[in-house]
Amino acid sequence: MYSKSLAPLLAFLLLAGCGVTDDLLPSGENKQGGAVTLGPGDRAPEFTMPDIWGQPHTLAGLLAEKRGVVLYFAMWCPICDSHMQSILHGPLQNHPDVEFIIVDYVSGTVEGGKRAAMSGGYAQSPFIILVDERQKALNAYGATMGTTVVIGQDYGIRMIEDYKSQIQLEEALAGL
Amino acid sequence: MNGIAMNGPAITWMTGSLSRLGLGGLYVRPALAVFVFAVLLLFAPSPALAGSCCGGGGGAALVLPKTGDWMMDLSFDMEVYDGYWNRDGKILPDPPGSDLRQYRLNLGYGKRIADRWQISAVLPMVRNENFYENSRTTSTGPGDTTLTLLYETFDVVTCVWSVETLEDLIPAAYLGLGLTLPTGVSPFDEASRSFDVTGRGFYRLDASASVEKTIWPWTVAMAYSYGIHFERPVNREYGHWVEPYNKKLGDRRSFSLSGGYTYFMESDDTITLTVSYSDLWEGVAVIDGEPDPATGLRKRSVSAVVAFANMDKSFMTKLGYSRAVKQDDWGENFPITDILTAGVTYVF
Predict the structure, then answer these.
(1) Number of folded domains in chain A?
(2) Which one of A8, B11, B143, B295 counts the least CB within 10 Å of its CB?
(3) Residue A57 belongs to domain with CATH number
(4) Rounded CA gap, B122 and B273, in Å?
């Protein structure tokens, strides 16, 4: 009887074992050198996207006017909002010679992007908000929510990773 | 956003930079993460059980009745996202035209290992559905597994029909230790998009205490838990290898208060209605010793569960609804969700 009642537990552990992931034994090994996705030092893909007012923007055009560009990929979620507030009240204030871009990859249309930006309180912010209508930029950069990309005038990527802090972004901006 | 289940029956979402949970379980949508945003979560605290020590209780937590040897539990959650609280507690909407959901199939097992001790395990299977104007993504995977060791402070069932002596007022109390295993897909694992997140990626140890008293047909219960996440190295984020760093999610606290009423049918089968209020907090994460101010969360919710149990309390089926209180300042940095739960439990 005892073994019978423990059988489900064993089945459980087997099931849980099927879900074995890297998270169970996390690694701190630096594997950046073998990256198959975009990383620091790679050339940033060109893009053309409209802003929420319908004006088209290209990476070349943005870099022609500023010393660098920061892309933040947003989906209008709580973490995105926290990140954007952090950028707004720190790095954006400190670097007027850098263009800070919010890439909205979920609204799908200029009108949708405008409504999302307005309801989130960002429509009139210093950010340029671009609408990635068909998620071409999202895919080209291998980005997802919170991905932050720092690009220099030479198109070189200085940073491409999840936003963590003002310090992290400031360090990348110092390399422009 | 995907949520990530944060805990027990609920959430999913949130990882440090989570997405919209889930948390949960953390975690754990939209994207909360989706997020795992969340998340997460796995994510909301379980309502305390109404009369769980007596069997036939109405809650969602996995507690073996005093008379049971082992139990199996199968439940299904549907979590629908409806905006979120920002860090200032202000409610903001999800993107226009979006429909963000997380489904969880939870398989639970409980076993009595001694007169006062029981163990349990819950393994969720998570499906995220994130529909936006320009994209429709679905992903399915295991969530984070929870193992629990529970100690009962009593030897006999404490439910009474009337109070005749002081002893009749003694409640049932439980002390527990829970370990969450990161068996789900997290931002630091194979997931390349926040939509795919089904776990938070961190081990967590929870200490819990709960107390309940049933004087038929009424039951009141309170539960409190405190959890700490273990620091881990991170060298990958959503498929991008990054310079390694150490990360630790914030400590987590949850509190719930519930009340229940049990109706006895002529057959002695019972129907129990339990209503609960739950409050969940999580502190900010720490990256290489520095606090990550974008993290941390709070969520307050109310729930109602109707449970049917047969006469000997060996079989129970339940239907529950949990609603985050959609008012400014009733949550922070977290998605607002509705959770519909249906489940069956069999006690051997």
Answers:
(1) 1
(2) A8
(3) 3.40.30.10
(4) 24
